[in-house]
Amino acid sequence: MTMNLTPEQVGELQNALDDAIEYRGPGNGSCHDCTPQRMCDDHQGDKEAADSYRDLRGRLADLLGHREIEAA
């Protein structure tokens, strides 16, 4: 499958991934089920999702030759 995205659309996708990474990132430490040694299942899932989004964003940057594109 081939997708044609404009530089502006790629920038919007990068920004959306940044937002998703931030949203799924570590909380403020107020979870009573997390310990310093182990995250609760919900937060572990969030971390895995954020890692996946970060990996996808990195692959996008590789495709673009590590250029950052600002969304319009």
Short précis:
The chain has 72 residues and is mainly alpha-helical.
Rough outline: elongated
Helix-strand sequence: HH
* β-strand amount: under 5%
How far apart, in Å, are the first and last alpha carbons?
26 Å
Task: Give the uncertain stretches in residue-range form.
Answer: none
Structure description:
- The structure is a single chain.
- By secondary structure, this protein is mainly α.
- It has a domain at 37-72.
- It contains two helices and no strands.
- The chain has helices at residues 7-24, 41-63.
- The longest helix has 23 residues, at 41-63.
Tags for this model:
72 residues, mainly alpha, 2 helices, 57% helix, elongated
Topology of helices and strands:
Layout: H1 7-24, H2 41-63
Helix pairs in contact: 1-2
